[in-house]
């Protein structure tokens, strides 16, 4: 699946700069709990009980 968005560069640049000031690229993944995410992903859906 692909999507193409065409937007003026200046507003996009301003928005990206603002979001980077809030959370830098180095810190954006700090709030994620990768262990729980991967356990949920690898365990798969629960088996329904009968």
What does this structure look like?
This protein has 50 residues and is an all-alpha fold. It is 48% helix and 0% strand. It has helices at residues 9-22, 34-43. The longest helix has 14 residues, at 9-22. The termini are far apart. InterPro entries: SsgB_sf.
Fold blueprint:
Elements: H1 9-22, H2 34-43
InterPro entries: SsgB_sf
Distance between the termini: 37 Å
State the order of secondary-structure elements, H for helix, E for strand. Answer: HH
What's the gyration radius in Å?
19 Å
Uncertain spans, ≥5 residues at pLDDT below 50? Answer: none
Number of DSSP E strands: 0
Provide the residue-averaged pLDDT.
Answer: 85
What structural class results from the helix and strand content? mainly alpha
Largest sheet descriptor = none
| Strand proportion | under 5%
Percent of residues in helices comes to 40-55%
Concise account of the structure shown:
The chain is an all-alpha fold and about 50 residues long. It has helices spanning about 10-20, 35-45.
Features:
50 residues; mainly alpha; SsgB_sf
